[in-house]
Amino acid sequence: MGLAHAHQGGGEIGIDEAEAGGTGGGRVNCMLRQLGLAPKGTRFDSTCTYVTSPFVSTGTLAYVRLFLGFYTLITLVFTLAWDSIRDGDGDGFFSYFTHLSYIGLCAYLWAAGVQTYVYATRGVYLLQRWPRALQYFHVLLYATVATFPIVVTAVFWALLASPNTFKSTYSAWSNISVHILNTVFALIELFLTNVPPMPWLHLPACVLMLAGYLGVAYITHKTQGFYTYSFLDPAKQGPGKLAGYIVGIAVGECVVYAIVYGLVLAKVKLVQRYWCCLMPASPQQTQHLNRGRGEEGGDTRESEERKEGFEEWEEVGRPERV
């Protein structure tokens, strides 16, 4: 199986070579790939897919991410202040999955925006050099950003929206921001950038997070006396209907994950086929790809490297015999 090569230090290291240490090392490297991480001896995200775009420059992508991150931060701070001062119920702010997922979206946009800005201005990608644990959590956070906003939007407008949703200017703005724009921002991140499909092994982690939220919801009821969402109230819904809602949301997360995975994979293939050869490489990309090879320029090789990177995306999440 032809796999992409990653560059580190003074030359190329093939993934097959990295697995040459034996069966045990091969299993470890296979697991790392399934988690969206680089095998031992190779560089994380060697083609810089997490900080580049096929449609806009790296600098523009950085500003877009930082602008969206700034908007989500302002929304969170203003909403928390309003709920605490005006309505007096700020204690329950962090009990809502809507707010928790929005915090995750805000955190990802800031983290990705700063990484992209540094890469655009200095030609280095800091996350590639950071500990593997931080790389794992970045990829996992990306998986939640790709799916949780869509689930939140679907559940809110299907089960929770009411005539009071747009009752006041503040209510209208708040609900549009956290129940519509959250999905818009997630889709921008998915389709404006070169980010690859989410690793399949992150799906169980996402489902476990949703299950863990049930604990938060019922602890909130025990300590503060209210249910964050009416469909979680067993007295109103009954045990059968309550179980149906819980299982339905978990299944919905799996369906959304699969759909988003397919759409992002389709984007990757379309960009690979119709767009990547038309877009010139940025100076940072050329410098990064040529570093360690001793090459000047090399547009043809750079194009080949991009194609290898796209092929590497398809390897993530695909089981492989060891």
From TrEMBL:
Cellular component GO terms, alphabetically?
Answer: membrane
- In this chain, the stretch annotated as Disordered covers 286-322
Annotated Basic and acidic residues bias: 292-322
Report the domain of life of the source organism: Eukaryota
Print the keywords alphabetically: Membrane, Transmembrane, Transmembrane helix
Membrane-spanning intervals of the chain:
62-82, 102-127, 139-160, 172-193, 200-220, 242-264
Q: Does the keyword Transmembrane helix apply?
A: yes
What is this protein's name?
A: FAR-17a/AIG1-like protein
The species this protein was found in:
Amanita thiersii Skay4041
